[in-house]
Model the fold of this input.
Amino acid sequence: MKKEYNFLKGERGKFYNKDANLNIPVYLDPKTLSFVESIATKRKTDVSTVVNDLIKTDMKIADYIKR
Done:
């Protein structure tokens, strides 16, 4: 690595995109992952869909309890 870098020709915000969608990785415990994978296999869908469905269900339950 250099001690100094020259940014005189740099352009601020050149690669900035306000509409960019950031996908955050989620790491599941092995036992949880195995459980979700088994559901995904039975449903013939992917793990992300199963996890999202489970979280949405939990959100509905939590919202109901808040009332």
User: Anything to note?
Assistant: The chain is about 50% helix and 0% strand. The two ends are 56 Å apart (CA to CA).
